[in-house]
Amino acid sequence: MAEIRPLTLTFILILLVVYLIGPATATPGGYIVKPAPENDPDEERHEFTPISFWELTPRAMLIDIALCISPVLIFPVEFLFAVKLWIYLGYRKVAKYNVLNSTVRSEMFECICNNPGITFSALARECNIGKGTQQYHLKLLMREHKIISVKKKGQTGFFENNSKYGELQQTMLLQLRSDTVRQIYEILILHPNVSRKEVARYLGISGSSVTWQMERLCAEGTVSATKSGKYTCYLLNPKAKEILRDYLPDHPVAGATGQAQKESSELRSAVPVTSGEIPSSD
Q1: Engineering a disulfide at 202: which of 140, 209, 240, 271 sits with its beta carbon 3.0 to 4.6 angstroms away?
Q2: What are the boundaries of the region Disordered (predicted)?
């Protein structure tokens, strides 16, 4: 029986991988083109950021090394992690009782507790650690039920796993990470049934941007919209208003004093509430 040389076997494996991951041929058909929605300037954007080798997880490091030597070594590496043999090779098992013994994980956990709803990018900035390392430690914290991740409308935030935050609170804490949404809530608190034009004028953004933001807030149950003639007016839901007492430092009905009262007064005068057209600034 002919012996297969290692070089030949490697070449066959490479061809097989290329064949499996190669692009599929698209079948002919029609296309539906829809206009893209106007993006929220405050929405978190995920960009590809180069990271160093030492920021990779242990598994990714071994796979990277294996690929540099020979693709054939990937299978033993995957098997090693699949059966968790690293426990018997001197690695200490991370469990619920010692998951916070790591300085990095402890700092991340404290940051999440102090900033409920914090996003991945914001957490990376606060803790000043590499994104690869952060992802690894977040998985451990979630695996041991120390934290939970909540995804709303494409945005993911992290919370302490203590049943402290209800679904509506989680939604609003994620929303409040957007400066635009925060300003909209301040306007709605001061001026119930404010119109779209009035909100657009104060924020200095287009009417379509206001509509896009309001549709999201209405869909998430924090704002309701009503028609008043040819105008659409918006009202903050009572439960959402109660939640904002705790999370908006300048909430006008939360007993704000001093500078907060001054800022609320300035906001009140900056957004004239009318039942019809907004008067021209000329």
Answers
A1: 271
A2: 254-282
Q: Are strands 231-236 and 155-160 parallel, antiparallel or unpaired?
A: unpaired
Q: Which amino acid is at 8?
A: T
Q: Which domain does 89 fall in, by range?
A: 53-93
CA dist 139 and 55 (Å) reads: 15
Is 27 a domain residue? no
pTM: 0.57
Residues in CB range of 25: below 8 A, 6 or more apart? none
Contact 86, 80 (CB under 8 A): yes
Position 181 in a domain: yes
Residue 25 resides in a domain: no
Asked if the structure places residue 28 within a domain, the reply is: no
Task: Indicate whether 29 pLDDT > 50.
Answer: yes
Determine which helix (DSSP H) or strand (DSSP E) holds 131, and give its type and residue range. helix 131-143
218/97: higher pLDDT: 218
